[in-house]
Each structure stands twice: as C-alpha cells, then as structure tokens.
Design brief:
- The complex is a heterodimer.
- By secondary structure, chain A is an alpha/beta fold.
- A 6-stranded mixed sheet of chain A has the order 6-7-8-3-9-10, with helices on both faces. A 4-stranded antiparallel sheet of chain A has the order 2-1-4-5, covered by helices on one side.
- Chain A starts with 5 loop residues before the first strand and ends with a helix.
- Chain B has 3 domains: 286 residues, ABC transporter involved in vitamin B12 uptake, BtuC, CATH 1.10.3470; 64 residues, no CATH class; 250 residues, ABC transporter involved in vitamin B12 uptake, BtuC, CATH 1.10.3470.
- In chain B, 73% of the residues lie in helices and 3% in strands.
- In chain B, strand 6 and strand 7 form a beta hairpin.
- In chain B, helix 1 crosses helix 9, helix 2 packs across helix 9 and helix 23 crosses helix 24.
- The longest helix of chain B is centred in the last third of the chain and has 32 residues.
- The chains are: A alpha/beta, B mainly alpha.
- Chains A and B meet through helix 2, helix 3, helix 4 and helix 6 of A and helix 19, helix 20, helix 21 and helix 22 of B.
- The complex binds adenosine-5'-diphosphate and magnesium ion.
Chain lengths: 254, 677
C-alpha cells in the first residue's frame, strides 16, 4: 500500500462537555475518493475544521503529505495543498466568481509581495487568467463569471466554492455536503465534475455527503461517524451492507 | 495616611462619574449591540442644559435637575434608539461604531447652537453649597460636591441592583442582556425593553454629565472626552458585559488616577505626562492584555445573513464608455481648476488648492485602512502628526534634506502602524478601533510633550524642501512669485500615492484584503495570511498619513500639535466615510469638503441664507461647528451607505446614465438588426 496522503490519528475534540469527536482515525491515499458519512451532528464538519486548523483538537495528530500539521497555521495548511468547501457557504461578498478564482490562484502562489503591487506588477498574469478560465469552464460558470456573487443561485454558489478550492490546486479536497441545496440534475452534474477533477488532476477527495447515490457513484471507501465515533469503515459495498450503519444512519431504504 | 485617605476620597468622586458612564456603555451595548461612544456627548448635553438653567437662568436645583437629567437625557436616548440604532441591529459592529462616532462629533455642536457653554466656568453642582468642606478626620477634606457624586454613584449602583434583581422590567432587561434571541422566543418584546434600556443608560450618562463639571469646575467638551475614555476603559475591562465590573472598574480608575497624581514625583517629565493620559494608557493596556476580547461578542442576529448585499461601488457599474466619459470629465474639470488657480484666481485659492491636495494625501490613508482593509482607525491624525513632528525634528536638528526627512518620518509612522496592526492579530473590529483611539490620545497627551517629539513647550518649525536646483521656499510677501512649485510637488506626491493605491487594489494586497473582508475563514482556507495582510494595510496607511502630515508641516512651516489632534483624527474618519472611503477620488472629495466647507461654503452660504432665506439670528455663532454637524450627521448614514453617501448618490446617477446608454445602444443594435434583415 502507498503512503497515505492524509493520516488522521486519534483525533478527539470536546466542546464544553459535548464530545464531538472521539478518538477518530482515518486516512486518504493520493488520488483516492473517500466518503465520510454520518447523521447530522456526528462531527463531520468538526473533523474538517480540525484538519484545516480552524479548530484545535484536544488530542490526536494530523499528518499530510509527510508533514505533521499540529503546529501549522490554517493558511499554511491550505498552501500545503488542502482545499475545502463549507457546509454553510463562505463566499467573498461583493466579489464575482472570476475574482474569487483569481484571488485563490494568487494565494496559492503566495508570491504577493507589497513592492510588486507598488511597482504596478500586481495585476493577474496571463497564466493566472488562463487557469481561472479553465476552472470557470470546467464548472460551467463562464456565463456567470462577472456577476456579483450575491446574484447567483445557491447551486452556482456551491460551484464557486468548489472552483475556489480547485484554484489552489489542492492535493486533497475536503467537500462538506456539496450537493445540499442542489436539485437532481445539478447533483448529477456536480458528481460528473468531481469525477473529472479526480481523474484529470488526480486530486484526492474526502467527501461528506448525505446523498447516498452520489456517494456510491463516486467513492471507493467510506468512513461512518456516529456521535463522534467511527462506527464502520471499508469498501463502499461492505459498509453500506453493514447493519449498524443502516440503523445509525441510513434507515432501511438503501 | 491622610494623604492616602484624601487620594481615596478624591479618587472615588472622579471614579464615580467614570463608573456611571461605564455602566451606561455596557447597558446599551448589551441591549442593542451599539458601543455608544456618543454617551460622552450625551453627558455633555445634560451638563450644558443644567448649567444653562441653574447657573445662567438661576432656576432652583430641583427643576433644573429634573429637566436636564430625568427628562432630557432619557428623551435623547429614546430618540436615538427609535430613529437610529433600532434599525442597525443587523449592521456590522463597525458601522454601528461609526454612526455613534458621527453623533459624538455632531451632538456637542448642536448643543452649542442653542447654549453658549463652551468654557463655561464656575459651575454650581446639584447640591446647594457644593464647595462646603467637611473634615471627618484631621487632614482629610471632602466637599459637598464630592459627596454628592459618591452618593449618586452609590445610589445608582444600588438602584440598578434592585432593578435587576427584584423587578420584572429588570428581569426582562437582564434576559435581553443575556440572550436577546431567547427572550424573543419567550414572547418578550425586546424592542420595548431595548428602548427602556436606552433611556436608562442615557439617564445614567446624563447624571454623570451634571456631576462631572463639579470636579473640573467648568463645562467643557474636553473633559467629557476624558470622561468617555475612562469609561470606555472600565467598560472594556468588563468585556462590555458585566455591569458590576464596569462600575468597579470606573471607581478603581478614578482612585488609581489620584494615587498616581499624588504619589508620582512631581517635576519629572514622564510623571507629569503620565498623569493626564492615565485613562488612555489603562485602556490601551486593557485592550492589549485582556484575553477574553479576542472575538467580538456583539449581537449575532440569526437573520443577519438575509441582509441585502452591500451596494456595488460606482466604479463597478460603469461600462467602458461611461468610464471613459467620467475620466474625460474629471480631466477637464481638473485642467480647468489648475488653469484657473495658476492664471485666473488669487493666492487664496492657490493656498486652498495646495491644502486640499495635502489633505487628500492624508485621507488616502483612510481609504487604505477603512475602504480596503475594512478597519476603522482613529489614529490617522496621529500618524500624520508623526510625519510632521519627526520630519521637522530630523530636518531642523540633523540637517537632513526635507524630502528625505519626510520619508524617514513616514517610515517611522509605518513601523508604529505595523505594531498597531499587530494588535489586530487578536483584536478585531471595535476593540481594534478603540485601541487606535487610546493610542492617539496617549500620543497627544504624553509623547507630543517631549522635546524630541512635539518640541515640548516650544512651538515647532518645519522647512520647505530644496531639491537640486528647485527651491520650494515660501514666496516673500509682496513679490511676484507664487507658491506654484509647492503645488506641483504635492500634486506629484498625490498622483504617486493615488497610483500606488490603485495598483495595490488591483494587485495582491487589495484582493487579499477584499477576500478577508468577505470571509476570514474562507480566506484562510485558500492560504491567505490575515495577519500579514492587516499589518501591511496598517503600515501602508500610516506611511501615507505620515507623508501627508509631513508635507502639511513643511507647507505651513510653523505648525502645532493642534493640527494633528486625536479629535481631529475622529473627524477625518467621519468626513472621509461620508464623502467616499473607497476610492482615491473619494479622498479628494473629502479633502475638498474639509477645506472648502469651512472656508468657502459656510462664509458664502450663511450670509446668503441669512439675507435671503432664513433670517434668524445666531446661525453664524458656531461657524466651525456646522462642519462637524454636517459631516457628523452624514456619517450617521454610514451603516446604510458604507461606500459614502456622496458616492452612493453618484452611483445612483451613473446607473441612470448607464441605463440611457444601454437603451440607446439596444435601439441602435435593433436598428442594425432590422437593417440587416
Ligand atoms: N463551535 C462549536 N461549539 C460547540 N459545539 C459545537 C461546535 N461545533 C460543533 N459543535 C457540536 O459538535 C457536534 C458535531 O457537530 P458537526 O461537526 O457540525 O456535525 P456534522 O457536520 O456531522 O453534522 C454537534 O453536537 C454540535 O452541536
Ligand atoms: Mg456538518
């Protein structure tokens, strides 16, 4: 087996008494698409926040691409190659999708020195524009590129978040319920885009998602969280066949 | 021991007044989410009314007190709540702060319109025979006035405790204080409770307002600023949440102040400078070290997310034709202006133009920090002052060339700015703004008095630069030469600063700051370093302010610390925020407003109004104050028009023009289409 890209060991996180994550261990290999499922309040979003450093876990370690992330600031984790989207959308108000992508591309390069701006060399370069257009095209956002973000629908907004994460050319994408708020057709489209991203850019994806068909169609392995504990993991088929999982989360209509 | 007891008693009477306003601040913040720095001004209103009634019109104490404190103060509070703050529940905390700031700037001048109280002395307090001295112990003296303060503060403390513990109104208010959302779920009308709380806190501030003059012997706006700062320090010490801590903090601060002034050695420059600025130092230290202030605990309205998006700045709605059109227009107006200044108008207009350009440079610093970084800094006048003081010192004492001196001084300002930005690491929003204010007051009251900064007791002089063969010296009066060389110099500097800002906005710095304003969490998720971006914004902004400040000093040659006072910094924020905080264009508008309103619009407009439209007397009595009122009330609209009220009207008319262009174009297009079919 290859070295995992992401290795999470024994992460524990409590919020004033509530144990949101209890000794969670999981891993993602390079280029792999992995599902993370569980009922609301299971701790999935909290795990993402711990991975990116927005929350500090009480215990446990996160290794990414050979780095120990424990003492690494959130923005540096992003530069190491972890991109994410948010369950509650976090867009840059007042900016267009095009500007979202440009700023993300620039942030990844991290070469924004003040003196460059002051010498008039801060404008987006040809390559930056090209990669932003590529992502616009990939996500089918070209027509909306110059509209203010507030004017876009929820579904488009989710795509902009995804595109913004893609612009930092992540090795690993953390997607937090990307299909919530999307209709059937949009969800299918999104699944298609994710498959493309995974294949063409060989980006690994850790996908939190309630839409079971979508999870099944995309992922090879699944982890199941319930009340902060990992109750099952393994290949998609075996996990979804598991009784405990069905009881905890999926009900009977799988 | 006697010294100790006297200091304690004296301190308690100062502290009692501080405590009252601190309680008002916390009460209003908790119930409405507004950090109402206008309480300083509201206290002044009651003080002024009381002085007018009791001292001037010789009303008896009780009716004067009732009208000033029990009627007027709560009425003002209720009016502000109903008319303004009520509607700002979902506005960002900083907008609410700017609205309160506008009031702080405008209200004292409105008062001055009706009551001539500036520098009113020989104040008589709320007890008869206030100057009578009691000597409970030998060597310990306490006046009736001091006693009245201590007793009032104690009564308010007891009254509030009873109110909160044992009355249903108090319980409801406490519930709103603790969780406005839960309260609403329980069917309590939080708006009524809110108005009551505003009236109550305004009453307390009004009480402080009539008590304060007894310790200073006069009714003067300056004392109310000190009062406000001390109260802010106490309120911040209480994390803006705990009324008892705010109360104790106020008392403690008053006592500390007395101990410092009695026990520190006299005659030492440091000691004598520390005394007056103690409240500012305490505020700064509290902001720096109190850990629980890391995140703003303002009201989190669950509906905040459904607010309409902020309006798009005018530059974003313009099409290419319109952009070219407005640029040509701007160019024509600019050319006409400079042509007139150079060849048609007299030296007064040359002087005004130069000062407009210099203030435009200074105001560009506010464009960077407020328009781009979304932070409010009340220290911009101080950074400008650093540019002025340090460049004058370096140029006159070390013989460095003036231009180089201004650059060095601005660099010093930039370093200090960066340090303040470093505080932004953990302090956000209003706490950061307050820290800049405390720093500005501290600089004013302490640093400026040192010989090596503000020249101490001596006036300080700067010089005009000489660059190679060009001498920018001030023309000798009566000669035919004019100050045009300096005009060109400031025009060049402003152009460079303007270009730098535009490049920054389109470059990495501006985009990162935009993203941070949009969502800090998301910005971190793509690798943006918020700390670095903020520090850069503060440093650049302080540098620009320093440049402008240094140029102003060099232009005036003789200048004083009054040109860079902290209060002026507050007003600059107000005027830029009103006239356009987002663009260089806005900074120029604000500078023109700042210089011309006072020197040209008012002197021209007021006699005209007086002769033709509004023949009532005394409209000229506060000619300077009109500026404060006008722009102060303008800033009150900030929450609604964060891009500046002038800018928002420009957007509206440009959108209309754009509509015409579009309609014209679509008609032409359809004509072309029909023609081709
Ligand atoms: N910032 C927080 N403070 C307190 N409790 C929290 C916080 N964030 C999450 N929780 C709690 O942690 C648990 C897990 O939440 P979350 O990670 O959002 O679950 P999921 O994303 O799986 O729906 C929930 O019980 C939630 O209430
Ligand atoms: Mg979640």
């Amino acid at each position: 087996m290859r070295d995992p890209l992401l290795k999470v060991t024994s992460i524990t996180k409590t919020f004033s008494g509530i144990t949101a994550l209890d000794d969670v261990t999981l891993d993602v290999s390079p280029g792999e698409v992995v599902g993370l499922v569980g009922p609301n309040g299971a701790g999935k979003t909290t795990l993402f926040n711990c991975l990116l450093g927005q929350l500090k876990p009480d215990r446990g370690t996160v290794m990414f691409a050979g780095h120990d992330l424990t003492r690494v600031a959130p923005h540096l984790r992003a530069r190491l190659g972890i991109g994410r989207t948010f369950q509650r959308m976090e867009l840059f108000s007042g900016m267009t999708p095009w500007e979202h992508f440009l700023v993300a591309g620039r942030a990844r390069r991290g070469d924004g020195r003040l003196w460059k701006d002051l010498l008039g060399m801060g404008r987006p370069s040809k390559e930056e524009r090209a990669s932003a257009s590529d992502v616009l095209e990939l996500l089918g956002l070209t027509a909306d590129a110059r509209r203010p973000i507030e004017a876009l629908s929820l579904g488009r907004g989710r795509l902009v978040e995804l595109g913004r994460a893609l612009m930092i050319e992540p090795k690993l994408l953390l997607l937090d319920e990307p299909s919530s708020g999307l209709d059937h057709a949009e969800t299918a489209e999104l699944a298609e885009v994710l498959r493309n991203v995974n294949v063409e850019r060989s980006t690994a994806i850790l996908l939190v998602e309630h839409d079971v068909p979508m999870v099944r169609s995309l992922v090879s392995r699944v982890f199941v969280l319930d009340f902060g504990t990992l109750i099952a993991s393994g290949t998609t088929e075996s996990v979804f066949a598991n009784n405990a999982v069905q009881r905890a989360y999926l009900g009977t209509n799988v | 021991m006697e010294k100790f007891l006297s200091a304690l008693i004296e301190g308690m009477s100062f502290g009692g007044v501080y405590a009252l306003v601190a309680v008002g601040l916390v009460l209003a913040y908790k119930t409405s989410g507004v950090f109402n720095i206008a309480f300083g001004a509201q206290a002044f209103v009651s003080g002024a009314i009381y002085y007018q009634l009791h001292n001037r019109s010789e009303w008896p104490i009780i009716p004067a007190f009732l009208l000033a404190v029990v009627v007027a103060a709560p009425l003002v509070g209720a009016a502000l709540d109903r008319m303004l703050f009520r509607h700002l529940r979902t506005a960002p905390p900083l907008s609410r702060l700017v609205v309160a700031l506008g009031l702080l700037v405008a209200i004292p001048e409105v008062v001055g319109l009706f009551f001539k109280v500036t520098q009113a002395t020989q104040y008589k307090g709320i007890v008869p025979g206030g100057e009578i001295v009691y000597r409970p112990l030998s060597g310990v003296a306490i006046t009736r006035d001091d006693l009245s303060i201590i007793l009032s503060a104690a009564l308010v403390a007891i009254g509030l405790t009873i109110l909160f513990r044992y009355t249903s109104l108090g319980l409801r208010m406490r519930a709103v204080v603790e969780s406005p959302r839960l309260t609403e779920l329980n069917g309590i009308r939080s708006d009524i409770v809110g108005t009551t709380a505003w009236m109550l806190s305004s009453f307390v501030a009004g009480l402080a307002g009539v008590l304060l003059p007894t310790v200073f012997q006069q009714v003067s706006v300056i004392n109310y600023t000190t009062l406000l700062t001390a109260a802010i320090a106490a309120a911040v010490l209480a994390s803006l949440t705990s009324i008892p801590i705010a109360f104790a903090g106020g008392i403690g601060l008053g006592i500390l102040q007395q101990f410092v002034s009695r026990y520190l050695p006299t005659g030492n420059v440091f000691a004598s400078n520390v005394k007056p600025s103690l409240p500012f130092i305490v505020l700064f230290v509290v902001l720096l070290f109190k850990r629980s202030l890391s995140y703003e605990q303002g009201l989190k309205d669950p509906l905040a997310g459904v607010d309409p998006p902020p309006p798009v700045p005018a530059s974003a709605v313009r099409s290419r034709e319109l952009t070219i059109g407005t640029r040509i227009f701007g160019f024509v107006v600019g050319t006409w202006w400079f042509y007139s200044v150079l060849f048609l108008w007299n030296d007064i207009w040359l002087d005004r133009t130069i000062r407009i350009l210099i203030y435009a440079i200074i105001f560009c610093s506010i464009v960077v920090i407020t328009g781009m970084a979304g932070q409010i800094s009340f220290a911009q006048a101080t950074f400008a002052g650093m540019g002025a003081f340090f460049s004058a010192q370096i140029a006159t004492k070390q013989g460095v060339s003036v231009i180089a001196a201004i650059f060095i001084a601005s660099a010093v300002a930039a370093v200090v700015g960066a340090l303040i930005g470093l505080i932004a690491l953990r302090r956000r929003g209003i706490f950061l703004a307050l820290a800049t204010y405390a720093f500005a007051l501290f600089f004013d009251n302490t640093m400026v008095r040192y010989d090596w900064v503000g020249g101490g007791i001596f006036a300080i002089e700067s010089q005009r630069p000489v660059v190679g063969p060009v001498d920018f010296a001030r023309p000798v009066p009566g000669s035919t030469t004019r100050d045009t060389a300096f005009l060109v110099l400031v025009l060049v500097v402003l152009t460079l600063v303007g270009i730098a800002i535009i490049w920054m906005r389109n470059g990495t710095t501006g985009r990162f700051l935009d993203a941070l304003r949009g969502s800090e969490t998301a910005a971190a998720s793509i690798g943006i370093n918020a700390t670095k971006a903020r520090i850069i914004a503060f440093a650049v902004s302080a540098f620009i302010a320093g440049l402008g400040g240094g140029l102003l000093a060099s232009y005036k040659i003789q200048f004083s610390s009054l040109d860079y006072k902290a209060e002026l910094g507050l007003f600059w924020v107000v005027i830029v925020v009103t006239l356009g905080p987002r663009t260089v264009e806005g900074a120029i508008q604000a500078a023109a407003g700042f210089v011309l309103f006072q020197e040209w619009v008012l002197p021209t407009a007021i006699p005209w109004l007086y002769n033709h439209a509004l023949p009532f007397a005394d409209i000229t009595a506060i000619s300077i104050g009109w500026q404060q009122i006008f722009f102060g009330l303008g800033a009150v609209t900030y929450a609604k028009h964060p891009e500046g009220i002038l800018e928002s009207n420009k957007t509206a008319s440009l959108t209309r023009v754009q509509g015409l262009i579009d309609r014209f174009k679509s008609r032409r297009d359809s004509e072309i289409e029909t023609a081709s079919v």
